[in-house]
Amino acid sequence: MSVYSSFHKTIFSLISSIYSLFFQINSRKDLKKIEAYREILGKPEEVKVLDLGCGTGTLTWAFREAGFKVVGADISPAMMRTARKNGIDCVETDILAGTPFKDESFELVCASFVAHGMRKNLRRKLYAEASRLSSERVLFQDYNDKLPFFPVIIIELLELLIGGDFFGFRKTAIDGMLEYFSEVIEYQVDRSCSWYICRK
Length: 200
Fold this sequence. Notes:
CATH class: Alpha Beta
CATH superfamily: Vaccinia Virus protein VP39
Order of helices and strands: HHHEHEHEEHEHHEE
CATH architecture: 3-Layer(aba) Sandwich
Strand content: 15-25%
CATH topology: Rossmann fold
Number of domains: 1
Oligomer: single chain
Distance between the termini: 28 Å
Low-confidence stretches: none
Number of helices: 8
Shape: globular
Number of strands: 7
Structural class: alpha/beta
Mean pLDDT: 88
Strand order of the largest sheet: 3-2-1-4-5-7-6
């Protein structure tokens, strides 16, 4: 396990109880997004979903509630404890070291608010692994460039403390993804969040 992965496993174990407080609110927000953009996701019975960096499982839960077969993957047992309490199937794994799943095992691979927390070289590993695992599409749910100035500064400072690259991600999100995918379409799903739908 890399120093980055070990550090983040520790950090997210410490703050998992805070994240779990927001499970209900965030999972229902994610479900509304899935219902609003269902046509671009495909038919639930035909799409198997993997949620990379699932954390407490808010997006994973939302996909399950929308009828999709979904599994989560995360490095933090503490974060996944909340997911499992909510009936979510999870696998403990280090995304950056390569997950145990076979190539193209899922029609849709997603990662929610994961990419902005990584430096550019590590984001590339995330993109490469997501591309390897998906047979069709990848969905990155993350911040866009519409976030107001004050929250940007706060988030950037917090991310710098834990080794993230919030500012760099927002500036180069689509360009970085296009190094690994043939097409990237951005859907602004709320004021500060976008879905980046990538095709192989």
